[in-house]
Amino acid sequence: MIAKDIPDIVVSRLPRYLQTLEHMQKDGIRTTSSQELGDLIGISAAQIRKDLSQFGEFGKQGKGYSVDFLVDQLRQILNVNRSWDIVLVGAGNLGHAIANYQGFGNHGFSIVMIFDSDPALIGQKIGNLTVQDAAQMVDLVRASGIKVGMITVPAQAAQAVADELVKAGIQAILNYAPINLTVPEGVHVQHVDPIIYLQRMTYYLA
User: Domains plus CATH for the chain?
Assistant: First the structure.
């Protein structure tokens, strides 16, 4: 079954399953059930079984799932059984914090290039990386073969940055700018806007 046959809402739940299973794995838990997973995640057992069945049969009725096996299978499905290099565009406060975040490396992601157009930031060091001039980004990223990009620039600059990343061969963009991006078919964009999630939560506080 090819990826485009799977509804995006199903794909969006798989990292939650994987994260929970990895925590169980670290705790020495070797087998689990859809009911146990559902209780931990807040999703019905039936939904978990339905989601996983889209990719094959991973458990046995009455015996549940092997945690190690399911972790391995989900990593393969999500293509995180390998390392992914990332280019980060925007070396301001948010970009600086993201570049210094250690959690990416623990899950197979590594920021290897940082770009900005601000002369005051170009040449600065963030960890082991030097902020490079965004004017050189397309050529450098294209030559590197990197496929994943992160955008941490202001909203008014985000679309132009996305256009340049697409020119450079980027196929997946994590966008922290509070604006929807227009990209060609085949380029996947994931938006991360904490304001939207805060507004969603405050609805329940009325």
Answer: 3-77 (1.10.10.10), 84-196 (3.40.50.720)
